[in-house]
Design brief:
Elements: H1 12-24, H2 29-40, H3 47-58, H4 79-89, H5 98-103, H6 106-109
Helix pairs in contact: 1-3, 2-3
């Protein structure tokens, strides 16, 4: 009889590696969940997350590393803000580049 050892710590990368390995052997996401749950305890990925990773691997992803997130701008723009700017500039002969817009943040804080 085989004994199971609980993993008190299983990093996200380790879990993704396990999912990729077992998925490549043909197991379904539900079977992968059944294999991982008793071993990883409460630190285990959720069933929907396992399904998502299997789908990602099925679409050709090979890396189990975290994907680098794009650097986010410190400036946030909303569609309504951009629409206000377009409406304000419509019909005028004003040209602005993004740097000009960022320098003039008052456009986004006032109702044009």
């Amino acid at each position: 009889m085989m004994m199971t050892t609980l993993l008190l710590k299983a990093s996200r990368k380790e879990q993704r590696s396990f999912i990729r390995f077992i998925w490549s052997k043909g197991l379904s996401p539900n079977a992968i969940h059944s294999e991982m749950r008793p071993v990883c305890c409460n630190k285990c990925f959720t069933r929907p997350l396992k399904h998502a990773w299997c789908k990602t691997f099925a679409h050709g992803r090979e890396s189990v590393s975290e994907q680098e997130q794009p650097v986010r701008s410190q400036h946030r723009f909303f569609a309504s803000d951009i629409q206000k700017l377009v409406d304000a500039l419509h019909g005028s002969n004003v040209q602005m580049n993004l740097d000009d817009v960022l320098k003039n943040k008052t456009i986004f804080s006032s109702d044009i």
